[in-house]
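Both lines are given unchanged directly below:

***
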Amino acid sequence: MPTYEYVARDRAGKSVKGTLSAVDERAVREQLRRKDLYVTRMTTKKEAASQGNSLLQRKKKVSLNDMVIMSRQLATLVKAGLPLVECLFTLASQTQNPTLKQALIEIRNDVLAGSTFSDALAKHPKIFSELYQSLSRAGEVSGSLDETLHVAAEQLDKEQELKEKVKAAFVYPAAVVFTAVGVVFFLLTFVVPVFADVYKQFNAELPGPTRMLILFSTLIRSYWYIVAAGVFVGWKVYKRWSKTNKGRRICDTIKLKMPLLGSLNRKIAISRLTRTFGAMVSAGVPIISGLQTSARVTGNVIYVDIVNDAAQKVNEGVRLSLPLEQSGYFPSMVTRMIAAGEESGNMDEMLKQVTSFYDRDIEYAVQRLTRMLEPMLTIVLGLIVGVVLLALYMPIFNLTKVIHK
C-alpha cells in the first residue's frame, strides 16, 4: 500500500501537513475529508523524492497548442459553474506537459491561499503572457472569466495559425539554402582538391578565381574546426548583441525595411496589435493598459515605441488615430478605421474588421512571397554552383598551352 505525503487546510484555513497510507489518492482524500481537511497538494513518497532530481532536468517548453487546449478547457469548466480551484485541479490532473502541469498546481495552491487568479498567473510570466494575465484580470473584475479565457484561447490560436503560415512559407527557401550550402561544401571538400592536384603537376599559373577557390578549399579541409568555431562564436555574439536595446532596434528596423519581407513584417505586427487590442477592449481592459500590453505583443520595438507614445498622448486627451497616422508606420486604412471606431464608440468591432482584413492579406502575401522566392532562389543556387564550376574549369582552357611548353 503506497504512502502519500499531503498538504491540506482545515475549516479555518490553517495549513496541515502529514503522511497517510491508502489504496489510492481518492481514498486519502476521503479520509481527510472526514476530518474536515481539504487537500491542496499530494504526492507519493517516491514522487516527493524524485522532485529534487526533476528540478535538474530541463523544463519542457509549453507550446501555443498546449495553451490553447488548456484555456478552452478551463473556460468550459468555469462556465459550467465549477469552483476555480476544482477546475485547476482537473486541468492539472489531465495535462500531459509537465511544465504546464506544475504551473497549474502552483497556481491552484496560490488561489487556495487567497491570491487572485491573475496574480497567481503573474508568477509564471514565461508561460502566461501579459495579454493572458490582463484578460484574466478583466474577467475577474467583470465576472466573465469564462468569456475572457475563450478570448485568450482565440488569440493564442490565431497566433499559432499565423506562425504556421510563416513557417510554411519558408520551408522551400530554407531547403534551397541548405542544398546550396551542401553542394558548395561537397565541391570544396571533394572536387576542388582533385583539380588542384592536377593543376599543381603542370605548374600552371592559375587565374585569380581559381586560386581563391583552392584557398577556400584548403581552409575548410585543414582548418574546419577554426571555421566552425568562428561561425559559432559569431552567431553567439550576434544573438547577444541583438538582445541589447541598440541591437534589437537596428534589427527590427531592418526587418521593416527589407525588400519583399519588410511589408510582410509590418502586416504581421499590425495584425498582432489590432487583434490583441480589440480583444482587450472587448474584455473591458482600460484603453491605456490595453495599448501598452498590445504594443509588446507586436514583437517589434519600433511599433512598441510608437504605440506607447500614442498611449501617452491618448492619456493627454488626443485621439488614438492621430499619433498612429503621424508615425508613418500605419496605413491610412488602419488609422481611418480606428478613427471611425472612436467616433462611433464601436472600437472593438472596427479593430476586428482590420484584423480580419490583415489576416487574409498576410495569407495572400505569404503565398505571393513563396511564388516569388522559389524561382529567385533556384537562380541564386544555379549562379553559386555555376561560379564555383567556372572558377574550377578556367585553367583547363589554357592547359593545352602549358602542355606544349
